[in-house]
Specification:
This protein is of the alpha/beta class. About 55% of the residues lie in helices and about 10% in strands. It is built from 17 helices and 9 strands. The strands form 2 sheets. Strands 1, 2, 3, 4, 5 and 6 form a 6-stranded parallel β-sheet that branches. Strands 7-8-9 form a 3-stranded parallel β-sheet. The longest helix is centred in the last third of the chain and has 36 residues, at about 410-445. It is globular. The N and C termini lie far apart (about 90 Å).
Length: about 450
Amino acid sequence: MKNTIFVIALLVILASCKEKTEQQPAEHALTEDEIHAKAIQIQKNIITLDTHCDINVANFTDSINYTQNLETQITLPKMKEGGLDVAWLVVYTGQDSLNEEGYAKAYENAVSKFEAIRKLCEDIAPAEVELALNSEDVRAIHAKGKKVIMIGIENGYPIGKEVANVKKFYDMGGRYMSLAHQGHSQLSDSNTGEKDSVWLHNGLSELGKQVIKEMNRYGMMIDISHPSKEAIKQMIALSEAPVIASHSSARALSNHNRNLDDEQLQWVKDNGGVVQAVAFAPYVNIEKDSLFDLEVDKVLQAEAKKHDFKILEREAIRSISEDERDTYYKEYRTIRNAVTPKLDSISKVKDPVNVADFVDHIDYLVEKLGIDQVGISSDFDGGGGIYGWNDASETLNVTKELVRRGYSQNEIEKLWSGNLLRVMDEVQAIAKQIQLKEEQATTTE
């Protein structure tokens, strides 16, 4: 009888404990200090990687370069301050005429940027930074305590009509390439066709299809961030390897034609690729950005008037030459930096696009694609930047928001670099298989 009473009493106690345990959260909410400390520790343990940073070759000289704290959003000092380990510097070429003169000029522009990046790594700052060509390079360079540079190609326009240029660009260090940018190229339609429903190829051109095959052959990742929806569909159908979106977010959260809709996300999921959410304000929240921009524009216009500087609309910026665009952005940054205190004041009373809004896209993409197919990008110096992550020095703020939302170190590592490096490994492994099959076929013949 005593044993029975004891067992009943024990069960009551256990039930009471279980009820109390279930009412308690699995882990107490972290304080801001704890979040900060945890984020710092995580970044020490992982590799942080940003897949899209634009460059200006004028910043790759002996006297003006990325070892200095320039006004640009990406520099080595800012990478060190924010804990950004890997920056994909972009060989970008604006869209121009589809003729031999245009192709020749575009090729020259692309080569100049490849050479500038090489100069940074080999001549200007070899003790601080190295160029990586694969994931093993990334890890080895990071282990040395150096920053890592990789090269992406934005717009396949410089390929011209020569498919062999894919191999040339690969040999120069290019490890991903988009086939179009703002306007249809000779290879692919651009997402810009949505505005007037005028298309050049109804997806990919025959030359573009050959370029996709050539990229597979040499292990260059296919970037779907700028081409049209139909072109993206055809790329994924043609590709033997996973694709990437180097800087795109979720269209369901911000209805911008540069973002990917749910159908496109499903294509990427089935393909095994990765979508690198981008911290470009209108791509993150187009309505919120538009309202905030109205207030910011008043301050900027007043400051620009003092300097006899005209602020251009984005469409007008795209229509000017690259040299003019570089000069424009340099002067624009000077104007914006001059009024930064006023803009910060506006941000306190208005509601700018911020890191929390950006991580909403990461949450959404993880929900749609899974934790293994989402990454992070900034589009710094190409229009990117949001409040809280407006240059590389603020990189920790993204990690802090991920910690705040309960992502584990393993998950954060995947988002910051693991997923992108996994895709690159798979793309390069498939390239070796393709080359081996070709060698075997040649031997058999």
